[in-house]
Amino acid sequence: MSLVIRKSTVEILCAAKWIFRRDCRLLSTLPEKTEIVVDEKERIPGRKTRSYNPILENRHVYPEFLPDPNPNWRNSLREKMERADMLKRRSQIDIPEFYVGSILAVTISDPHAQGKTNRFVGICIERKGCGLRAEFTLRNVVDHQGIEVRYELYDPTIQSIQVLRLEKRLDDKLLYLRDALPEYCTFPLDMDPEILPEGTPVPINPVQVKLKPRPWLERWERQELKGVSNIEEHLKEKDRVRRELRKTPWEKYDLMKNYRKTIPAEEQSEIWNEVYNQLQQMRVSRKKMSRKRTVTTPKTQLA
Amino acid sequence: MFRSLINKLIPVQSCGFHTTSCLNEVQLLTRLRVVDNSEIGKRAMAEGKPPKVICVYNKKRVGYIGDRVLVAIKGQKKKGILVGLKQTQKVKVPKFDSNNVVLIDDNGTPLGTRIHVPIPTILRTILKEKTHAKGADYTKLLGIATRFV
Amino acid sequence: MNQADVSKLVSKLRIKVPPKHRKLSSPQGPEGRLNKLRKTVTGLIKYERIELNYRRADEARQYAERLISEAISHGDCHKPTMEIADYWLLEKQLVHKLFKVLVPRYENCNTAFTKMYKAPQAYYGRHIDKAVLELRGNPYPTLTNKQSNNRLLLQNVLLDAAKYDYRQAKYAEMAEKLGKTEEVKSGQSNEDRNKPSN
């Protein structure tokens, strides 16, 4: 009996407390008009290191590992699976480091060709896309006819990608080579690879191309190209005025526009931590293999 | 509601012409480049009067790679096969700087004896598919090609 | 599918960033929009708390956050950062404030550098959302009035007294009940009656 009573009293007390506390909160809020709108994100443990992080330099070498910056198209699971697939493909085939402006030779297995393989040599004029959809475009002039071929970087029909000359150019995209004189993008199909000594930084080729007279495919004069020398020759007064009107000098100060184009450093370092070890292992094992090959080939010749 | 009405009333600043990039499609009256060494083709190109498309033989009326076209060249009607396009192509199919055509007659025999620019390898398959047993044989064109890319 | 721009490294913002920018109507187009935001960001850095329209506040907040995070990550010896600060702060003494006051203040901060509150709307007139934008750690009194736990508030004092009265009444009632049951069951100990009153 006593137990029952005790229980009941405790219950009553609890209920009373609960009611009162709620009342308390309702009544005691002073004229509080303001309320927090956007709550800050949860506290991030560990501050961003201000020091230089060498792992982030991979972004220049493997830009396709970074996802699309548009948040509407982000999907962390898909990105992770794509990265795993890319590493798997990279373990099968050596996809070397190359940049826009490098000269590549790509061999693909082609069911239409006679030898079932097809080789094309050209200068890389554009790299775009991310993840498994990453693409690059090669351009060359063969028999006085400009030809461009677009390849997917992780295409399973690609047999080998060879870098014949590793270098960068002054611009991020070399689409203006379409309107340039043909000698600037003519490369022999049997070009020999030029090997850079190890440890040297990638050279930047400061060559400035000459454009053909107009009409052009795009308004190159408005794009502030560094790799074109004779753009002023072909312009009329009207074009110069238009170019001045169309300039957007404020865009480099538009901090949020730049932010929306990139992936923040914290997210990048997560991605690189995930893939860097495997990429490094692959690179080291490839180096070993190539060294072995160079040693073994002269022996066979002797024999 | 109110805002949309205002937007309709205030004329939007526009440049007056559309600024989308051109598709470079081969359609009616497109100028082509003859790339074989047929007499009529060479002369037309030398005179600076390249052939014009007057019919594309497919349902879409837009010429894609390997399609048959009827061209007006030096006052004559000739048939030709598109062997290279300026338009953006599929992955691994080469895109050329000009729209190239090789002139053929009704049986599919090319008028020239040599093609002096590279030919995409995918044409082998496309032209084989288009050739029927008793119709015109377009694969003869592949025999006069000098180089494939 | 676009490739991310790799030429610059930015640190992540601690606020929610909408996928697209807001258009602030301006006859000068995007430049006019930035000019408006420059004024707001300058005002925010200068006064540390401002009240303005919600749309503009939310945009300006993102730019202010980016400006401070750039200043923290690059410091005042970095030329491009200095140019950016020079562009965004219309009054030049504020550049010194940014690097000498705000950077040390937020250097070890793990949260966003600014706070935004919804402000009350005007009772009559057009309904435009208002907001209060402030820098964290400003010298003003706080806007949120979280005093529900303050026992000395009049409401709380009255409530406590009411609670006390209610409890007393309950205990008296219970004691009466217990007395009655005791009479019936005579011979029980008094502990039960004493306990609840404690």
UniProtKB/TrEMBL annotation, chain A:
Location(s), subcellular: Mitochondrion
Keywords: Mitochondrion, Ribonucleoprotein, Ribosomal protein, Transit peptide
Family recorded in the similarity comment: Belongs to the bacterial ribosomal protein bL19 family.
GO (cellular component) term, any one: mitochondrial large ribosomal subunit
InterPro entries: Ribosomal_bL19, Ribosomal_bL19_sf, Translation_prot_SH3-like_sf
Principal localisation: mitochondrion
Record lineage: Eukaryota, Metazoa, Ecdysozoa, Arthropoda, Hexapoda
Gene Ontology molecular-function annotations: structural constituent of ribosome
Protein name: Large ribosomal subunit protein bL19m
SUPFAM superfamilies: Translation proteins SH3-like domain (SSF50104)
Pfam family of the protein (one): Ribosomal_L19
Any GO BP: translation
Superkingdom classification of source: Eukaryota
Automatic annotation (TrEMBL), chain B:
Pfam families tied to this protein: Ribosomal_L14
Highest taxon of the lineage: Eukaryota
SMART domains documented for this protein: Ribosomal_L14
Compartments, record wording: Mitochondrion
Positions in coiled-coil regions: none
Single Gene Ontology MF annotation: structural constituent of ribosome
Keywords assigned: Mitochondrion, Ribonucleoprotein, Ribosomal protein, Transit peptide
GO biological process entries: translation
UniProt family annotation: Belongs to the universal ribosomal protein uL14 family.
Cross-referenced PANTHER family: 39S RIBOSOMAL PROTEIN L14, MITOCHONDRIAL (PTHR21037), LARGE RIBOSOMAL SUBUNIT PROTEIN UL14M (PTHR21037:SF3)
Protein's name in the database: Large ribosomal subunit protein uL14m
From TrEMBL, chain C:
Region listing for Disordered, in residue ranges: 179-198
Gene Ontology process terms (BP): translation
SUPFAM superfamilies tied to this protein: Prokaryotic ribosomal protein L17 (SSF64263)
Superkingdom classification of source: Eukaryota
Keyword check for Ribosomal protein: yes
Signal sequence annotation: none
Keywords: Ribonucleoprotein, Ribosomal protein
Matching Pfam families: Ribosomal_L17
InterPro entries on file: Ribosomal_bL17 (IPR000456), Ribosomal_bL17_sf (IPR036373)
Gene Ontology, cellular component aspect: mitochondrial large ribosomal subunit
UniProt GO molecular function: structural constituent of ribosome
Gene3D superfamilies xrefs: Ribosomal protein L17
Similarity-based family: Belongs to the bacterial ribosomal protein bL17 family.
Protein name (record): Large ribosomal subunit protein bL17m
Species assigned in the record: Euphydryas editha (Edith's checkerspot)
Lineage summary: Eukaryota, Metazoa, Ecdysozoa, Arthropoda, Hexapoda
